[in-house]
Every structure is written in structure tokens, then in C-alpha cells.
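>> Question from a student workshop board

For tomorrow's exercise we were told to take the sequence and the ligand below, predict the bound structure, and bring the output to class. My setup keeps failing. Could a helper post the expected result so I can at least see what it should look like? The ligand is fe (ii) ion.
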Amino acid sequence: MTDDDTPRVQGSFYPRRRDDWHPPALAPQYRSSTLRAPRRALISIPQSWGEITGPVFGQNMLGELDNDLLRNFARPGESPIGERIIVHGRVLDQNARPVPGVLVEIWQANAGGRYRHRKDGYTAPLDPNFAGLGRTITDAEGRYEFRTIRPGPYPWPNGPNDWRPSHIHFSLFGSGFAQRLVTQMYFEGDPLIERCPIVNTIPDPAAVDMLVARLDMNASLPMDALAWRFDIVLRGRRSTWFENRPEGN
Amino acid sequence: MANEPDYLDETPSQTAGPYIHIGTVPNFLGIEGVYAEDLGARMIDDQTRGERITITGRVLDGVGAPLRDAIVEIWQPDAAGLFPSPEERRGTADPHFAGWGRSACDLDTGLFRFETIRPGRVPLPDGRLQAPHVNFWIAARGVNVALHTRMYFPDEEAANAEDPILARLMAEGRGDTLVAKKAEGGFHFEIRLQGHGETVFFDL
Ligand SMILES: [Fe+2]
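>> Workshop helper replied:
Here is what the output should look like for this input. Compare the format with yours to find the bug.
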């Protein structure tokens, strides 16, 4: 596919479904939100150039191993402990068009549920061969892929005995600043998903379902790694630049 | 757009959690050797046009404590008001200006910091000029959908007075939350997530 087949689409973004789809700012079952949620309503303003534009991320800013978490921190000849997996999918917009050039950054715990971060004091040990971060840029068809290990669940201070399901954090930067998205990916069949206070900040089960990656045997590598498929939808753009055509343009 | 069958729903947001630094600014965190450089660390070079400024600030929670696990990103036009982006249709931006910056909040002090230039003015869709401002985006533990706000400049009184968005917020008594304070070498912007003087956040 050539660049001509997948032009970056101009135009302002569709509004976000904040009332019944995205989590509300204040979700008391997730304790950290109580002191950090704005209490005043968000103010709607018209999108202009600052909202519909965004920087370009080029393949040339990537290193060869950036999307290979099995190798991007491991000592020569060694590998991280854990279940080897491929996480892949497509980034589409709400018009079901692939979004090329999306910066996809991920971070995750190791197989024991421990993050490489000085503030994570969980008992599970660090893995000397695993940093837990990766990044890539979607291709012309919106595809991305990572190789990693399946992260372990971990306990966290919220309720008396709350555990996070296995998850991978995703940050996505599409073609516009107002399209920026941070989310988390879960694994189909994990019984901790429905028990998670962070998952349950999302009001609609259909929305939660979008965050659950599916086992994808077709993309697995026999005798090497299972694959999980996680497609992502970013805000779609109108076909016109702005709701009201700018004067003098 | 759930009521339009042809449209997909957006993937829902989830909090960044406490460890977003790992994925976005690993070198800052001390995870070295994976990425050569953290993205968004440099916005300008020797040849960038415009007045050099430093923007520092903090993100404060409901009891006034600075967040030390947040990531702050900014997106702004060059000195002429043009964005370095393929979607920019009004002209070509300064090739020596990145427009986008990313700063970790310091793990001890919570301070974020950007070395950039004073932005030019950008029109609204109806043609009215906005005052110079910097667009902000904040992701952190406890923030379920990352927040958008903007920073205006305290020494742009005339432009601020005719900015349609700021003027409306000033009339509602909340505009001051978006105006930075003059500081050594630039400006300081305190973002208050809740409580007295809560910063205005936008639904874009
Ligand atoms: Fe996590």
C-alpha cells in the first residue's frame, strides 16, 4: 500500500463519549481518583489548529529492538522469565480507517508482577533481563506488533485485597493532539478482570470488552510464542476541517 | 458515535497508573540502554526562531500535594503561529521547532520543565485570533481520562483580553487558572486538579 492510499485525514474530531463510555473522572472505588479528579465540569471549546494537528513520528526515530521486549534489555544470549507472547493489532479511527504513523508506547510488569520502578516495592523480584517497555509506529495499514512476556497480576493498595489483572499499559499518539489516548490491555479469560476496580471505572461492559485482547492462534509462532490480538480505535475525524469553515480560508 | 452504525466506538481510556515514566521517559527514570533518548525531550535547537522561554510547573492534587508520577505533554505553534504538522494548512512551520514536548514530573519535587519558545497567535475556526498559549496534556495515576488544558502568558494583556475562550472564562471567574506566573527565565504554571482555584480542563 502506498502513502497515497492512506492519506492523513484532516478535519476536526468527533466528540468523545464521556458520559457513558469513558470512565468518569471521579470513581471512588478507585481511591487514587478521589483527590485527583477535577470536580468542575470540563469546558467544551471549538477545535482549532492546535487540537487537530500533531507531530509526525517517523520510523527513523525507532531502534531495531524497540518493539521486542524479549531482547531490548536482556543480556546477550539471555531472555526474560515468563510466557513468551506476541501482542499485535491494528489502530483504526472511528470511520474504520487504518491510522498510520501512530506512536504506540507500552509498559508493563514482569512475569512476577513487578515493575522496574523505584517506587514499586512488591515482593516479587525484578527480572535482570526485562525492562518492561517498548514502542513502535503503526504501518500504512495501521498495524503494530510487540514481542514480550505475559505480565503477572499484582496486588496494589486500594481495597483490602485488590489485584490487578495481567495488563499492558498503552499510550497512543495519532495524528492530532486531541486524539491522544492512554489505556490498558487485558487478556481474554482472566478472572481478575471483572474484579478490578480500575477496569470497573468503565461503566459499559461493551467498552471493557474493547480492552480485552483475544488469543490469536493464527498469529502464534509454533514452539515459540502465543499471540494476542488487540485492535484499538482512536477518535475519528470529520471530512471537513472544522465544524464551521474558517473565515478567510 | 454509538448511534451511527457506520462509526466505531473509541477505545475507552484507562488511567496511566503510577509507572507511566517507564514507558514514556525511561532514561529520565534511570532505565538506560533501551532507547537512545526519551521522546519529546528537545523542542528547540540553535536555529529555532523566537524568544526562548522556560516553562516550569507542578500538578497539584486536591490537598495541594504535587503529583510526582504524572507525565505532562505540550503542543504549541512556532513563533509565527504555525504548527509543525502535516495537518497545518496555513503555511510551513519553522523546521527547527518540534512543537511537541514531554516532561516527567520529577519523582521528588513534582516539577515539570520545558525549554521552548513563545508561541505565536492562532485563529479559531471563525477567524477570531486567540492569544498566545501552550496546549497541555496530563496523564497520571488517579486520572481516568488524561486531561487537556492550556497555558496563557501574563505579559500578553492585550491579546489575552481579546481571546474568545479566555475572555469567556474570565467572565466566569475561572480564567486566571490558565494564566502562568512570570518566573526566572520564563514562566511557572501550577495546575490544580481539584479544590480552590481548580484549573479549567477542556473537552476538545
Ligand atoms: Fe499496571
